[in-house]
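Example 3.2
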Amino acid sequence: METSPEEDIVSYRLKTVTYGTKPAPYLATRCLLQLAYEGKNKYPLATPVIENSTYMDDILSGADDITTAKEMHRQLIG
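Structure, written as tokens:
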């Protein structure tokens, strides 16, 4: 697609985290923490898991009983 100098400038806004850049790990982690903060009332079991049991895009957590574990899983997958 060719453009000419007479055409208007078009602006684009990237709304994703571009992996491979220096700030990407921070941005990905910060996004998760923000989602946990915003959803703490709706997802009370998922919030502490996201805040304390997440490494990059992996989650390792557990519960004392299967019912709580299933509900935690449901909240995490949203």
